[in-house]
């Protein structure tokens, strides 16, 4: 699932109306339950996968941009399922990825809780 980055107008709205955690969904960021004022991580720009989408090439997942100073955990996914052991910010595409889409899921956590969002998906020929 590709996710558009939050616009300046959306970010201004979120900051002016701190009513919830932001969860990335196409085509915009959506405010969901929990009070933003409690310090939960808030995603303001979705993670992105970069690299050449060819077997044997390294893909890199950015953490995205977050409020409230979280730490990050990465999970690479193929066909919407976790790839066992693929929990770093980088992933080398394997032969088994050929013909599928690969994406990265970022979990951002701090003392107040956890928020999760996905990157764009890349198609592996």
Share in helix: under 10%
Globular, elongated, flat, extended or rod-shaped: what is the shape? elongated
Q: Give the total of beta strands.
A: 12
Mean pLDDT: 83
Could you say which structural class the secondary elements and strand pairing correspond to?
mainly beta
Spans of 5+ residues with little confidence (pLDDT < 50)?
Answer: 24-28
User: Helical element count?
Assistant: 1
Distance between the termini: 18 Å
The biggest sheet, with number of strands, parallel, antiparallel or mixed sense and barrel status, is: 5 strands, antiparallel
Strand content: 35-45%
Q: What's the Cα radius of gyration? A: 15 Å
Give the H and E element order: HEEEEEEEEEEEE
Note down, in words, how this protein is organized:
The protein is mainly beta and 125 residues long. Helices cover 7% and strands 42% of the residues. Strands 7, 8, 10, 11 and 12 form a five-stranded antiparallel sheet that branches. Strands 4-5-9 form a three-stranded antiparallel sheet, with no helix packed on it. A two-stranded antiparallel sheet has the order 1-2. The longest helix is centred in the first third of the chain and has 9 residues, at 8-16.
Looking at this protein, list some descriptive labels.
125 residues; mainly beta; three-stranded antiparallel sheet; five-stranded antiparallel sheet; 12 strands
What topology emerges from the helices and strands here?
Blueprint: H1 8-16, E1 21-24, E2 29-32, E3 42-45, E4 49-50, E5 58-61, E6 65-67, E7 71-78, E8 81-82, E9 90-92, E10 101-110, E11 113-118, E12 122-123
Antiparallel strand pairs: 1-2, 3-6, 4-5, 5-9, 7-8, 7-10, 10-11, 10-12
């Amino acid at each position: 699932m590709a996710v558009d980055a939050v616009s300046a107008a959306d970010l201004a709205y979120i900051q002016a109306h701190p009513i919830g955690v932001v969860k990335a969904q196409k085509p915009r960021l959506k405010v969901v339950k929990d009070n933003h004022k409690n310090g939960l991580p808030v995603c303001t720009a979705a993670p992105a996968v970069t690299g050449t989408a060819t077997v044997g090439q390294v893909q890199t997942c950015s953490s995205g941009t977050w409020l409230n100073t979280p730490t990050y955990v990465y999970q690479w996914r193929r066909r919407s399922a976790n790839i066992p052991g693929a929990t770093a910010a980088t992933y080398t595409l394997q032969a088994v990825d050929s013909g599928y889409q690969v994406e990265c899921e970022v979990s951002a956590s701090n003392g107040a809780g956890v928020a999760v969002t996905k990157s764009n998906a890349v198609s592996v020929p």
